[in-house]
Amino acid sequence: SYQRGDEPSIGAKIRTVSKSSGSYLDEIPNWPLQFVSINGRMQPVAELIYYCGTMDSGKSTLALQTAHNHKSRGRTGLIFTSKDRAGSGIISSRLGLQSSAIEVDSDLDIHQLVVERLSLGDRIDYIICDEAQFYQPIQIEGLAKIVDGLGIDVFAFGILADFRTKLFPGSARL
């Protein structure tokens, strides 16, 4: 039978989807799901997907929509954010939508938090990371470890560069 941790070390599959205006949904290609055999059962390969765009392009709205879509299909997950406009521990969009989230400060070990939750018996099918440009490179490494070692999908959302075209630390690592 399949157990978490049985996943082979296959390397995080990372996709970056960028859109400066309009709908992100128009840009998402219909890529086929990839599967790997684990203990004789075919399991989907987890992915780390980074949606990046300009200010006011709807990234937080898409993050909240992604979480809603997963929840409506019976999946459970965690939502992280950093320095959101609505305050600590909240992910919000300019449309007025908001949800509670785990605040990511520079000291948070995301991988360790997820492992602890799984050890307590929590089910985690996906992770949403808003404002990922503010995450530390080591935290992005933790997200890759979650994808590779735990087989959990990670959806990150953020801005690629500042007004000087200098990459944000989290975006540079993603």
- Major sheet attributes: 6 strands, parallel
Low-pLDDT windows of residues: 1-14, 18-32
Mean pLDDT: 79
The class by helix and strand makeup works out as alpha/beta
Helical content band:
10-25%
Count of discrete alpha- or pi-helical segments spanning 4 or more residues: 4
Instruction: Tell me the radius of gyration.
Output: 16 Å
Strand order of the largest sheet: 1-4-10-9-5-8
The span between the termini is: 33 Å
Strand content: 25-35%
**What is the strand tally?**
10
Helix and strand element order:
EEEEHEEEEHEHEH
Shape: globular
Summarize the structure.
The protein is α/β, with parallel strands linked by helices and 174 residues long. It has four helices and ten strands; from the N terminus they run ββββαββββαβαβα.
Overview features:
about 170 residues; 4 helices; about 25% helix; disordered N terminus
Describe this structure in words.
Strand 9, helix 3 and strand 10 form a beta-alpha-beta unit. Residues 1-14 and 18-32 have low confidence and may be disordered. The protein has 4 helices and 10 strands; from the N terminus they run E-E-E-E-H-E-E-E-E-H-E-H-E-H. The protein has a 6-stranded parallel β-sheet. Strands 2-3 form a two-stranded antiparallel ribbon. Strands 6-7 form a two-stranded antiparallel ribbon. Helix 2 packs parallel to helix 3 (137-150). It is α/β, with parallel strands linked by helices and 174 residues long. The chain is 25% helix and 26% strand.
